[in-house]
Amino acid sequence: MLRNLLTVGGWTMLSRLLGLVRDQLLAIFLGAGPLQDAYQVAFRIPNMFRRLLGEGAFNAAFVPLFTAQYEEKGPEKALRFAGQAMAVLLAWLVIFALLCEIFMPLVISFIAPGFKHGDASRYTLAITLTRITMPYMVFICCAALIAGILNARHHFGVAAAAYVSFNIVGITAILIGAFGIHDVPLSSAWGITISGIIQLGALLWAARRFHLLPRFSWPGHNPDITLLLRRIAPGLVGSGVTQLNLAIDTIISTLLPAGSISWLYFADRINQLPLGVLGSALGTTLLPLLTQHVVAKNITGMQQSLNKALDYALLLTLPATFGLIALAPLIMSGLFGYGHFTHHDFINSAQCLQAYALGLPAFILVKLLAPAFFAQGDTKTPVYIGLFTLVLNLAFNLLFYRSLAHIGPPLASTLSGIINLCLLAFILWRKGLFRPDGRAIKRYGKITLACTVMGLSAYTTLHLFLPQAPDWSAFPRLTALGSLIAANILFYGVLLVLFRLVSPSDLLSLIRRRFKRSA
Question: Does the pLDDT of residue 152 top 60, yes or no?
Answer without folding.
Answer: yes
